[in-house]
Amino acid sequence: MDILNQLEEKISSAVNKINELKSKVDELEQENQVYKSKLETLNSQLSSVIDPETETTEAPEETEASNETPESNESAGSSYYTSNSY
After folding, report:
1. Other C-beta atoms within 10 Å of 66: how many?
2. HEC states along the chain?
């Protein structure tokens, strides 16, 4: 019986650690999204400073393209963490 209790404690500890790591992954994904948004804003501002004429004609297209790319990358990253158990 003592061996079973030890095994149960180890399993419980492992499950708790997995849950902690999943929470950390979620937290880091949210933080990453904030940084991606800030980067997009800074790139847009930089583009307008470098070439103000281009901003009025090309900025909406660049914004749409950059909005699509992080979402597709983020969902790919999310599926990696959700499909692989630690």
Report:
1. 15
2. CHHHHHHHHHHHHHHHHHHHHHHHHHHHHHHHHHHHHHHHHHHHHHHHHHCHHHHHHHHHHHHHHHHHHHHHHHHHHHHHHHHCCC
Q: Can you read off the two tokens belonging to residue 86?
A: 């630690």
- In this structure, the chain runs to a length of 86
Quote the distance between the C-alpha of residue 60 and its chain's center.
24
pLDDT tens string 4-59: 999 999 999 999 999 999 999 999 999 999 999 999 999 999 999 998 776 554 54
What is the distance between the alpha carbons of residues 1 and 33, in angstroms, rounded to a whole number? 48
